[in-house]
Every structure is written in structure tokens, then in C-alpha cells.
Amino acid sequence: MNQIKKIMGFIWMLIAPVVIFFLINGAVQNIGHGTKDINKPIPWIIIISIFTPICIGLMIFGFYAVKGEYKRD
Predict the structure, then answer these.
(1) Whether the Cβ atoms of residue 8 and residue 63 lie closer than 8 Å to each other
(2) Is 36 left (phi over 0), alpha (psi -120 to 50) or beta?
(3) Sequence-ordered list of residues with C-beta below 8 angstroms from that of 68, at least 6 positions apart, any chain
(4) Other residues' Cβ atoms within 10 Å of the Cβ of residue 49
(5) What single string gives the DSSP state of each residue in 4-66?
(6) How many CB atoms lie within 10 A of CB 10?
(7) In this predicted model, what pLDDT tens digit does every residue of 54-71 receive, in sequence order?
(8) What is the DSSP secondary structure assignment for residue 72, as one 8-state letter?
(9) Digit-coded pLDDT (tens) for 26-37
(10) What pLDDT is recorded for position 39?
(11) Which of helix, strand or coil describes residue 3?
(12) Are 53 and 60 in contact (CB under 8 A)?
């Protein structure tokens, strides 16, 4: 079980920057192309500012899982 926790820690640490990358990439591609609300910068600023701390927390959680802080003996 502890080995699964370490593997999942690596996965969490990899997922977090990928999510931030896709959010920023989606914002760059959508802003200014059309008239819908998703094409305006304010919703993207809100979305990115909400999900960035969540992803940072996910990375911290993954780091502690890899480090073995959630081990049960």
C-alpha cells in the first residue's frame, strides 16, 4: 500500500503543472477569438487564479506522499 502511495505522489506531482499549462494554453488560444464570454480575459483570470493554488497544493501533497509522510507501518 505504501508503494502505491508513492506512485500516486509522483502522478500528483506530474498532473499539477500539466493542468496549469493547459489552463494557460487554453486562455491564450481563446482570448480575443470570438464574442462569447469564454473569449474574454476576465473569466480566464478568475479560472487560473482559482486553480493555480489548488495545483500547488496537489504538488505539495504529492511531494509528501513521495517522501513517505503518509506511511502506515
Answers:
(1) no
(2) beta
(3) 2, 6
(4) 9
(5) HHHHHHHHHHHHHHHHHHHHHHHHHHHTTSSSSGGGSHHHHHHHHHHHHHHHHHHHHHHHHHH
(6) 13
(7) 999 999 999 999 998 888
(8) -
(9) 999 988 887 888
(10) 86
(11) helix
(12) no
Residue 44 grid cell: 480566464
Structure-block grid coordinates of residue 28 = 491564450
Q: How far apart are CA 63 and CA 70, in angstroms?
A: 11
Contact in structure between 31 and 44 (CB atoms under 8 Å): yes
Owner of C-alpha cell 493555480: 52
Opening angle at CA 5, ends 48 and 23, nearest 5:
15
Residue 25 confidence (pLDDT) above 90: yes
